[in-house]
Amino acid sequence: MEEEEFFNPSDTIGLDPRALLQPATTTGRTTHTYTASGRARMDHGEEFVDILEERRRSCDLGHALRTFKPHPYQGGPPCSTAELNKAVLESQYLRYVTEEMATETGSSVVEVREQARRLLEEMSHNLQLSSIRLMGYILTK
């Protein structure tokens, strides 16, 4: 018989309780909702799910080193960082902004587009979030 896990308030010290809850979903998996029996419930009857439950059952290091697989935006095909950068650089919006910036600064459009390309390259990353999470894990321990 599976033992039921109860909400432990000491796991959430310093956090706003509303930040720990999200609306319950029916994704086919078991959800632990907290209802009118002294637990969280909105006035209009919407139930909530503890989003930190998974973190309590696993270790921090395992969370830090897990892989990151982003979902494509609204069902679009997945693309690499280079393809995404190319699409942004060829967009009509960036073309308009670079023309406006060139007019305002007195620079050529080519110079402004090159600045935009360098900024975009600096902002993009290779989606190695495990190294960022590992750094966060090390700093908190």
From TrEMBL:
Q: Which domain of life is it from?
A: Eukaryota
Protein name, entry field: Uncharacterized protein
Molecular function (GO) terms for this protein are:
glycerol-3-phosphate O-acyltransferase activity; glycerone-phosphate O-acyltransferase activity
A single BP term in Gene Ontology: ether lipid biosynthetic process
Give me the Gene Ontology terms describing cellular component.
Answer: mitochondrial membrane; peroxisomal membrane
Q: Which PANTHER family match?
A: DIHYDROXYACETONE PHOSPHATE ACYLTRANSFERASE ISOFORM X1, GLYCEROL-3-PHOSPHATE ACYLTRANSFERASE
Q: In which organism is this protein found?
A: Pleuronectes platessa
